[in-house]
Write a structure and sequence with these properties.
The protein has one domain: TIM Barrel (Alpha-Beta Barrel), CATH 3.20.20.20. The protein contains 10 helices and 10 strands. The strands form 2 sheets. Strands 8-7-6-5-4-3-10-9 form an 8-stranded parallel sheet. A two-stranded antiparallel sheet has the order 1-2.
């Protein structure tokens, strides 16, 4: 009697979300990327087919204040210019898309004017043809104005704007809806809050195909196991048929560069840059295995290691 491998079938499916708009779709991006669409657990090719593998987004921070000196030493002064940084992600570092983090908007730090930030995003759109995501600085009042400006200068490009939180989502949602953009819904390691965020956005009028979920990815050494469990539960809830959880998941794994142990200079622990690269790659690897459809990364060598691991898990594809 032959062995018949047990196969688990799910009644639910992750919805598909499109990022970016080409010329035919009213934008100027080089591609319109699709994420999501899976009907099973990550890399379980013996049970289901995932139409899209994990997408790699490389982040660009608009103020050197938020970039570790170790990274600047490794990747060069290009990190001091967000436009050139984004161009490098496209031309040399193999990003599928870019995430522009407008941290200089912070009213308690640089407090950069809204007009300048809108102009910066417009310049990046002109210089880089990759699909873009744009995040604010985390201050609700300032981000409301920034996201409105960003939305207006990028009409037709189908950006994804963030981060929408439970107490600060209406202004970002309105800005995204006004010009055909998407939105990133943030929840802090809480599956119920993640579900609530989606409900709030849907009730506000945002379409399911315009939402990415960010459930917060804690890096290796700072709660990765809890994040893994939370992301996995989100995926299982979606596959079990909960339509409010069936939006694709995005995980920001560049957080690995904030871990003290990854940056620590200690001869007993080896080269800090090598350690940081593997720290970020491992964080992204865990996110993808848990169920992330999109990972945000910063170092090109980390991206290379991550893509190699994904190819191996996918049978060399």
């Amino acid at each position: 009697m032959g062995f018949e491998r047990p196969v688990e079938k799910f009644g639910g499916k992750i919805g598909e979300v499109e990022i970016g708009a080409t010329k035919e779709q009213g934008g100027t991006r080089s591609a319109r990327l699709k994420v999501g669409g899976s009907g099973g657990l990550p890399f379980h090719s013996f049970e289901n087919t995932s139409p899209h593998g994990p997408m790699v987004v490389m982040d660009v921070v608009d103020t050197v204040r938020m970039v570790p000196e170790l990274l600047i030493g490794s990747l060069g002064s290009v990190l001091k210019d967000p436009v050139e940084w984004a161009a490098k992600c496209e031309a040399e570092w193999g990003a599928d898309a870019c995430l522009v983090k407008l941290q200089s908007a912070n009213p308690e730090e640089e407090d950069r004017p809204v007009e300048e930030l809108g102009s910066l995003v417009k310049t990046i759109l002109e210089k880089v043809s990759l699909p873009l995501l744009v995040y604010g600085c985390g201050f609700e009042e300032k981000d409301a104005k920034v996201m409105e400006a960003v939305s207006n200068v990028s009409k037709g490009e189908r950006l994804f704007l963030g981060l929408a939180e439970e107490k600060a989502y209406k202004s970002i949602a309105a800005a995204s809806m006004a010009n055909g953009h998407g939105i990133v819904a943030f929840s802090n390691l809480d599956i119920n809050l993640a579900k609530q965020m989606n409900i709030l956005l849907l009730d506000f009028g945002v379409k399911p195909g315009n939402i990415l979920m960010d459930p917060l990815m804690a890096p290796l050494g700072m709660g990765l196991e809890y994040s893994y469990s939370n992301i996995e539960r989100l995926r299982l809830g979606a596959l079990s048929g909960d339509p409010v959880l069936q939006m694709p998941t995005i995980c920001d794994c560049s957080c690995a560069w904030t871990v003290p142990e990854a940056m620590e200079v200690d001869p007993r622990k080896g080269e800090p840059m090598l350690r940081g690269v593997h720290w970020e790659a491992m964080t992204a690897y865990a996110a993808a295995v848990a169920g992330a459809d999109v990972v945000v990364m910063r170092h090109p060598e980390s991206v290379r290691l991550f893509r190699t691991a994904v190819a191996d898990l996918s049978g060399g594809a």
